[in-house]
Design a protein that fits this description.
Keywords: Plasmid. The protein is built from eleven helices and 14 strands. 29% of the residues are buried.
Length: 375
């Protein structure tokens, strides 16, 4: 008989909870097994504690003197010793005809193996164990795993021997070493609806098996001025890259859809002249532009942040102060622009007023002879 672990009457409830937790862990790993009855699991745990059974444990506990009550709960420290799980496995294996001590020890001490086969419903994988590599940070995941699972919501079916619950998870960078929890659901139908809602709310989420989107999408709806729109775009890109973090550069190609009525040329000029200070670049007095912005239509911009490092710092950029100016003397024919403006040094000093000579032109619109410059 192994050495007895003292259990006091005030420990009874914790003892029963531990017995149930152990039994639930076993049936979670081995789904074809039944949850032990309270009598059997309490009896097995009592034997692991060195007693003949649960009745022997309760009899001995009640016989403890009141002066011993200051030791209440000390048996919990035994859980930290090497022999804890071995004794548990030996005792509980006697209650399962088809499980060995080694199999029960595996269920109690190690995570289930990565699940590679599963059912897919409406684009959502239904898994009982994690389909991702365990104990690894997201930036260390293989390219194959990122390609298969990044931004793919999946449903995790959990079972404690009595109840099945479903939680929705997604590898989107929200947690540094695992999928991000998205929703708890009581039924599979609720979980499927939650997955559908996630994909409806975030156009960057996708069905399992679909190719990963080459373009990150942002739909802007919460700005009233051009400056607010530029700031909101930066903020939304920051939130997206905050999740992707070191996993990938999610801002390499960003399609932004804006409501009608915004001055896209001006917004593009603001974004293209946004910079990171020397605090982040490491070079004194030097600021770097962080993105390009091209107009695709009257309400769409395509933004590119080519550097993964700069993408992770997108929330720290400084928006420039730009001045709009209208000058009817500017060329109104597309072919004449090259005479006055160049991409490398966009200066129109030859036609600006004398006091404005040397201003850097950073945006130009033919239709109403507008240009934008840094004051």
């Amino acid at each position: 008989m192994p050495h007895q672990i003292k259990v006091y009457p005030s420990d009874f409830e914790d003892f029963k909870q531990l017995a149930k937790q152990i039994s639930s862990s076993i049936v979670y790993r081995y789904r074809d097994q039944a949850l032990l009855s309270a009598f059997k699991r309490n009896d097995a745990l009592a034997m692991a504690f060195g007693y003949k059974g649960h009745s022997d444990l309760t009899h001995c506990a009640k016989a403890l003197t009141s002066s011993d009550t200051n030791e209440t709960g000390r048996w919990l420290n035994w859980r930290k010793t090497d022999k804890f799980y071995e004794r548990i496995s030996a005792a509980f294996s006697q209650r399962y005809d088809s499980l060995s001590e080694e199999e029960i020890l595996l269920a109690l001490t190690q995570a289930p193996p990565k699940q590679t086969e599963f059912e897919v419903i409406e684009g959502c994988p239904i898994v009982q164990f994690s389909p991702l590599d365990p104990d690894i940070s997201n930036e260390q995941r293989s390219e194959q795993e990122i390609k298969a699972w990044f931004n793919v919501p999946f449903i995790f079916e959990s079972f404690d021997g009595e109840n099945r619950t479903f939680r929705v998870e997604c590898l989107d960078g929200g947690a540094w070493d695992r999928a991000t929890h998205k929703a708890w659901c009581k039924t599979l139908e609720e979980a499927l609806a939650a997955c559908a809602q996630l994909k409806n709310d975030n156009p960057n989420y996708r069905n399992y098996g679909d190719d990963e989107a080459t373009v990150t999408k942002i739909v802007l709806s919460n700005a009233s001025t051009d400056e607010e729109a530029a700031q909101a775009i930066i903020h939304d890109m920051y939130k997206i890259q905050l999740f992707a973090d070191r996993v990938k550069n999610a801002l390499e190609s960003v399609l932004v859809e804006l409501p009608k009525g915004f001055d896209l040329t001006y917004i593009a000029a603001l974004l293209e002249n946004s910079t990171l200070s020397e605090m982040y670049t490491g070079e004194d007095g030097k600021k770097y532009p962080i993105c390009s912005a091209d107009i695709l239509s009257d309400n769409e911009l395509l933004i590119c942040v080519p550097s993964h490092y700069f993408a992770t710092l997108i929330g720290m950029v400084e928006l420039p102060t730009l001045t709009k100016h209208v000058d009817t003397r500017l060329p109104i024919e597309l072919g004449e622009i090259d005479k006055y403006i160049s991409k490398s040094d966009a200066c129109m000093s030859t036609i600006l007023d004398p006091e404005a000579e040397g201003l850097q032109i950073i945006g130009y619109v033919l239709s109403d002879n507008r240009y934008f410059y840094k004051p």
